[in-house]
């Protein structure tokens, strides 16, 4: 049995031809198309810092899970000494970095690191942001009991992910589908036109991303026949855009339930006036209830 570190030890192999440009990088475009994760993660962490500090510092875990946390890991030697600047942060390296390692090596370890990081990214988002009205009835809308349940489910799922690795990504995409279901329910409830617009755009982006992902997995022979086997790289770029949109949408939905007397303003980086921009939220002035 090959080592879990060995190149191509994963049962999963994406459509892009292997080792086209280098003997060290199995899937060149699938590896380097993860770069957008390293842009959006730190940028969103910086832009949404005031909101994070008001809502919950645990959100840093979610942003860190999404973002690269250093040069190929913060344990790198920097200038000959250990770089421990990030040791105090609850770190598990993020999907973007692990996805790069996975596509570079197509190793079993790379696949499991990638998929487990995504699982805990989604779990942290669920535990912080899922509106209480969607909690299972037996929890009585108690968020700390719900978060404990999420942690238990995530620990069991982490163990189960080693049993049938080839279905992990399908299961994670099913969770993504549930997130879309939640935001569509909120779309129907809200009168906030800006929130509705954000949900329309992010749902379209997610649908295009998922279509790319599933096509790469199931229709590879067709794409290789027409010599276009880069749909998974397109998935990386599109799904990374759902992160800023998803954060803003969930922050707006959450604040309506959890911080009703606070106003969140949607801003667009780098300029509100630009036709295309990255959404983020700013804390508005508090509503003083008289
Ligand atoms: C109420 C719940 C709140 C949860 C909020 C979480 C929002 C997360 C947003 C984006 C997550 C991006 C994760 C990307 C993974 C990148 C690594 C990757 O591509 N891995 C592949 C192999 O390289 C692997 O095959 C992918 C597996 C499937 C990942 C499924 C991710 C689901 C993302 C759901 C996004 C919903 C966005 C909703 C917008 C309103
Ligand atoms: Ca391949
Ligand atoms: Zn990938």
UniProtKB/TrEMBL annotation:
Q: Please give the function described in this protein's UniProt entry.
A: Hydrolyzes the sphingolipid ceramide into sphingosine and free fatty acid.
> Where does the record say this protein resides?
Membrane
Reactions catalysed, semicolon-separated, are: N-(9Z-octadecenoyl)-sphing-4-enine + H2O = sphing-4-enine + (9Z)-octadecenoate; an N-acylsphing-4-enine + H2O = sphing-4-enine + a fatty acid; an N-acylsphinganine + H2O = sphinganine + a fatty acid
Membership in a protein family: Belongs to the alkaline ceramidase family.
List positions binding Zn(2+). Answer: 103, 232, 236
EC numbers listed for it are 3.5.1.-
Enzyme class (EC, first level): hydrolase
User: Predominant location of this chain?
Assistant: membrane
Q: What Gene Ontology molecular function terms does this protein carry?
A: metal ion binding; N-acylsphingosine amidohydrolase activity
Name one process (GO BP) from the record. ceramide catabolic process
Q: List the InterPro entries hit by this protein, alphabetically.
A: ACER
Q: Name one GO cellular component term.
A: endoplasmic reticulum
Q: Which pathway? A: Lipid metabolism; sphingolipid metabolism; Sphingolipid metabolism
User: What is its cofactor?
Assistant: Zn(2+)
Q: Which UniProt keywords apply?
A: Calcium, Hydrolase, Lipid metabolism, Membrane, Metal-binding, Sphingolipid metabolism, Transmembrane, Transmembrane helix, Zinc
Q: What protein name is recorded for this chain?
A: Alkaline ceramidase
Q: Where does Ca(2+) bind?
A: 13-14, 16, 18, 27
Q: How does it sit in the membrane?
A: Multi-pass membrane protein
Membrane spanning residue stretches: 28-46, 58-75, 144-163, 169-185, 197-214, 234-257
């Amino acid at each position: 049995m090959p080592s879990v570190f060995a190149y191509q030890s994963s049962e999963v192999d994406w459509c892009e031809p292997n080792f086209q440009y280098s003997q060290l990088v199995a899937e060149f475009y699938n590896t380097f198309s993860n770069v957008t994760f390293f842009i959006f993660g730190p940028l969103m962490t910086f832009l949404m810092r005031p909101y994070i500090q008001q809502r919950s510092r645990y959100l840093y875990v979610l942003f860190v899970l999404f973002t690269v946390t250093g040069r190929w890991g913060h344990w790198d030697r920097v200038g000959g000494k250990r770089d421990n600047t990030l040791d105090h942060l609850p770190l598990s390296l993020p999907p973007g970095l692990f996805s790069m390692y996975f596509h570079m090596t197509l190793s079993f370890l790379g696949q499991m690191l990638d998929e487990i990081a995504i699982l805990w990214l989604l779990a942290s988002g669920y535990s912080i942001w899922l509106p209480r009205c969607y909690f299972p009835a037996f929890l009585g809308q108690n968020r700390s009991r719900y978060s404990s349940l999420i942690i238990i489910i995530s620990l069991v799922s982490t163990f189960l992910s080693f049993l049938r690795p080839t279905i992990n990504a399908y299961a994670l995409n099913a969770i993504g589908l549930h997130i879309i279901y939640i935001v569509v329910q909120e779309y129907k409830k809200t009168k906030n036109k800006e929130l509705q617009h954000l949900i329309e755009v992010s749902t379209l982006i997610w649908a295009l991303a998922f279509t790319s992902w599933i096509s790469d997995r199931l229709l590879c022979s067709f794409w290789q026949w027409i010599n276009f086997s880069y749909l998974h790289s397109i998935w990386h770029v599109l799904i990374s855009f759902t992160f800023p949109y998803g954060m803003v949408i969930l922050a707006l939905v959450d604040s309506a339930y959890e911080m009703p007397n606070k106003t969140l303003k949607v801003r667009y980086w780098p300029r509100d006036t630009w036709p295309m921009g990255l959404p983020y939220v700013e804390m508005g002035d508090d509503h003083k209830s008289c």
